[in-house]
Amino acid sequence: MAPAIAHFLVGASLLLVLVAPLALRYGIDREHAIWLIPLGGLWGLAPDVHHVTPLFESRLYAFHNSPWADLFALHYTLDRGAIRALYLESVFASIALFIVAVAIFWGTGRLRPDALSVRSGRDRILAWSVTTAVATGYATVALGVAVSVQEGFRSVSALVGSDSVLVGGLALLPIGVVLGLLSGPVLEVLGGTRRVRPSVTTVCGGAFGAGGWIVGVGIGVPLWLGTVSGSALSVPFVHWGSLVALLVYGATFGATYGVVRGAFQSAEASRSLEGDRRSARLRTGSQ
């Protein structure tokens, strides 16, 4: 297994990064944010509770050794043999990740509203680009977890003629990026307040994931494998695990998109409101 400190720091880092967009959008009080660190650390360590609990030890140990432990800050992935062999490297990498996560969380709190204001078409493109990039990152990680709990990395690696878990994990990166580049414009064209409402963008993202499954998996995978390896899969190809994974990707992308895009919209609205207040004060003073 990976060192306990690595699990703790990865859990704390992921929770800080997860909360950062919410804090940016909704102006969450950061005074008590330091509690996110121990909470995230305990989240990452939770599957190791079988070491200290006097109850259900065998069941908890079985859960610890299952891919479902990845729901706790990628615990199962960190305990894979390839990472266990890199003991010191995993410790220093987790420390570096924690420093980056703290910097991200701190940085979002230091952003001035004017930095997020959308004043022109160029600003709108920048807002869309940043939002799409952030949402793609979050959704790709969620996609990896969804594939991991189904032990599906080898199936993904088969798309490139491999049987390696590592290759399957790496293959998800370009898949996630391509899906993000396609999803971003779809959500942006919702326009108005719809694209900044997480409830709406989550549903739309999930629908996009379902559509991606129909086209990409149901039709694209058989054609791709038939061309690359000569495999004869029927069209449509039905693989329910990939549907779940793409729904998770789409919903995560949509939720993140709505939250982050709304931060730009909120900043613009705040700036407009402040301008109205100044105008009102000037009119009052002139009278």
UniProtKB/TrEMBL annotation:
Keywords: Membrane, Transmembrane, Transmembrane helix. The chain crosses the membrane at residues 85-106, 126-147, 167-190, 202-225, 237-260. This is Uncharacterized protein. It comes from Natrarchaeobius chitinivorans.
